[in-house]
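Class, discuss our next protein.
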Amino acid sequence: MSLPSSLSRRSLGLLALLPLTVMLASCNKKADANGGPVLVVQESADIPTLDPGTSYDTGSGQIVENIYETLVTYKGSSLSQLQPMLATEWRVSNGGKTYTFTLRDGVKFHSGNDFKCADAEYTFRRNLVTNTSQSGNWFLSESLLGTGANANDDKSITWQKIAGAVRCDGETLVFTLPQGDPAFLSKLAYPGQSVVDSAHAKKIGEWDGTEATWKAAVGKDLTGSPLSNDPSGTGAYRLAGRDATSLRAQAFGDYWGEKPKIPNVLIQKVSELAARQQAFLKGDADIIEAGTRANIESALKGKPGVAVLDDLPDVSAFGIFMNQSIKGGQLGSGKLDGKGIPANFFSDADVRRGFVSAFDVPTYVAQVQGGQGQPRNFLLPESFPGYNPDIAPAEFDLGAARAAFQKAWGGELWKSGFVVNATYRAGSVGAQTGMELLKKNIESLNPKFKVNLQAKEWSRILDDADKGREILIMTGWAPDYADPDNFVNTMYSSTGFYHPRANFVDPQIDGWIAEARSTDDASKRNELYGNIARRALEQAYYIVMPSNPGILAYNDKLTGISKDDFNPMLSFPAGARWKDLSKS
């Protein structure tokens, strides 16, 4: 899942302090009129979409996972154990190629429609058909159709394949895979595979689900779709209202499961960290995007009404991406003349090595992460199989950076200089600090080197990065499912989801990834991932950010938040669903 470059792994945006105060008062009064307490969350960027079929960032995911539901979900804090949700049981047959699901009775959508097998069939077929570039449907298509991340370019996909891959046998849902995939069940727990209300979707103008119209829906942008504006899920909460600065949700009265303990939820866009902290300390917000660990420890920890959960598992991976084939974007002169850069600027390995060596990981850990975390050698969390701690990570070394830059582009770079534009997410203290460190060190090496920094909204970064327009960005990945392939294929494969952000092709790495995906031998897979890590370090494909143990500050009136219950596979920062929280 695509992550904003933020310590808190969230994404929301801009609000002035005075309107915030007014909105807080009015929204809380309205919520109280609807009955019971309000869970108030403040974050710094926008929510790109509420359509599960295209949600692929944590800001959208935290809403989707609470207003919609999947067939299966993670059990407690486990990353590997699954339990029923909209399915009550399942069985695997035919050598791991057939999955049969018994579905839950007595479930209603927010529209009032009954949940039926036809809804699940429509949902998964819609995901396979649209398979937008900003969605997790590439790994669904990979399992069910045998495609890669860019499945919409695969001419072998037919309606017959899609219809045969997922179908209803009465009220039983059947998936048929072309080959076994041991990660398939975990993929179904991803929030983007939540079941939508097919009758409601068709009524408001979504794809009609038929063979006659499927080709016209292929790759369709669903970000602002009718379903994003008017969602209908089976989740414990329903959308109550949304505008440019807030989202409100209310408990769904006909929810099939245990009723939520907090009846109202308010998500707010608040750009300024100081404004979020002020609201939090006053008790006007229960959870905020709190900035860096240093911000939490200096401004929040130990204050009245504040509880802190520390040393949370870090299952995400962050890096600074150096685009080797920039599609448009702000290139300045577009030449290696000291006034800009060519589109293939980062295709020179010595340019990349210079940038990698110029990034000061120890200072970043000290300033942004409060001294917590360690350098990494790979864009893969240490808690996942395949990470080899014996491989030395890249080191901060300005001497090595200077030597690399002097060799780059046959020595021309050092003589001419460059102007490069780097982007960070507006409101992200961690991303801004990291980019400022990089800028300072790069510019210190040669007065002809210039790094311009630009803050952008998260939704704009997502769109520009997907189109290959971002030049130098910090972003990251949270696992869609608990397997190292979800990181390695995503980040390093020439057909991976993140390929447009880095635009490199390494046949040797591609071969190792393919081999790792075709074997169940854990030791062999670990060996292959070690090979990939070494090769990627030598080629300096990314500036790999350090590990970052999580820390969460929250209102001490909230209960249901603990290490034992915290599941990092959930997008909501508390590692829980809203319905499992209570507020005194």
